[in-house]
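Supplementary notes for students who missed Thursday's class. We covered one full example, reproduced here. Read the sequence, then the structure, then the short commentary at the end.
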Amino acid sequence: MKDRPAGGKTVGNKTEPFEKQLFKAADKLRKNIDAAEYKNVALGLVFLKYISDSFEELYQKLSDQKSQGANPEDIDEYRAEHVFYVPKEARWSYLHGRAKLPTIGEDLDMAMEHIEKLNPELKGILPKVFARPNLDKNSLGGLIDLIGNISLGDTASKAKDLLGRVYEYFLGEFANAEGKKGGQFYTPKSIVKLMVEMIEPYKGRIYDPCCGSGGMFIMSEKFVTAHSGRVDDIAVYGQESNQTTYRLARMNMAIRGIDGTGIKWNTEGSFLKDEHKDLKADYILANPPFNISDWSGELLQNDPRWKYGKPPTGNANFAWIQHMLYHLSPNGIMATVLANGSLSSQSSGEGDIRKALVDANLVDCIVMLPKQLFYNTGIPACIWFLSRKRVGNTDRKKADEVLFIDASEVGFMADRTHREFSDGSIDPEDNDVAMIAKVYHEWRTGGAYEDKKGFSKSATIADIQKHNYVLTPGRYVGITDAIDDGVPFEEKMAKLTAELKEQMAEEVRLNEEIKKQLAKVGIEL
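Structure (token representation):
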């Protein structure tokens, strides 16, 4: 693995990533604190280490330029470089030196307060949980030592990149540890990567109305960087109703150097209190909570967002879709994860809304996802891709067609309970994300696309009408043909029939033997 400052532990023939090693070590220090609480401690320290390293790097640079008029104590010097100013008592070197003192919890809480005071954009964002009585201070000191080792033996820039990876990895592991609750703040990386690779947010405004810890924005930033674009060309807008999760998102943005001020928080959520009423986004990426019934739909019966039909008060799926469409620019494209029921439900007017979306030529692509991708639910899910620029963004003969992709059998089991899409990071030849995205891009641009039975189908609106506007991919892609092994059907059938007769005869023999043995001990059947 490249860019691994502190080395990687070799397990068998595989090298274990540094961030995985670090999480295992950090988790051992957790003791009697549950994952939901401990994540704020661990992630808060990773964030503190990141901003302190960034500050120290610029501080040294400014110190070296004193003769040219630079002032390392001038807070405006740091603001000009988009670096947070960290006062002496909040710098990692100072706190690391106090890690074994019984007052380290109070020292860290005070450090967070000082940083917020000098950096107004972080006000109310940083965790102040380190002085809690149930947090063992020896374990806290051990965690500080662990995180302090991240930058050993490497350049500051690589260490900062690794801190970003550590933060992201920790988010995923804490979501896994929290199970259903954790899924509220974290969408598995392979799903986010697929969505981003398919809609390609190179430049413009990106919106997520239920942004969790900001994974959609982070992956968009990675996409832009990987394709030699400029991160400054994208602007992120989000909303989150859980304050703790909102804080995680803002810290996540800061670690990646993304302006997170467009992410807003209120307890009422995007339906009741839309923080971005006038926003028209170029790209929308979201994973809203599935099938929520308490979304206050009865209070929003005549809302202007319901252009394609009034969503049922007992299920928010089509409220989410229409809320996003309301915020989609005239040339915008969106991707949202929803429960599979959204593809076929006819109850409470959902079928009529789906029909209106198809007839309005908004539905671009439907991707059926495999099971076990999510940390928080076993509900089968899919991704809806909707676009306002279908005619201008695709070959005209496809303008009245919808692409269906059944990826329900794609991916691999990352562990006993979770499936993932491969992304080429381990084996460049094994890349589920690129394979699915390529099919979509070839179809959308009028390239070398061809239907693949059992996997993809470009269906006309007339085809969809015949299926009563049900959008389940399996109805369109068909079933994969059985592999022809060259053995005639009659020969296969004869062999199978003979095997069945043998098995039935063996069953009779075993039953008689069981009766005989039971009779010996006085049991008659």
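Commentary. The chain has three domains: 9-178, 182-224+261-477, 486-525. Residues 106 and 481 are 66 Å apart (CA to CA). If anything here is unclear, bring it to office hours.
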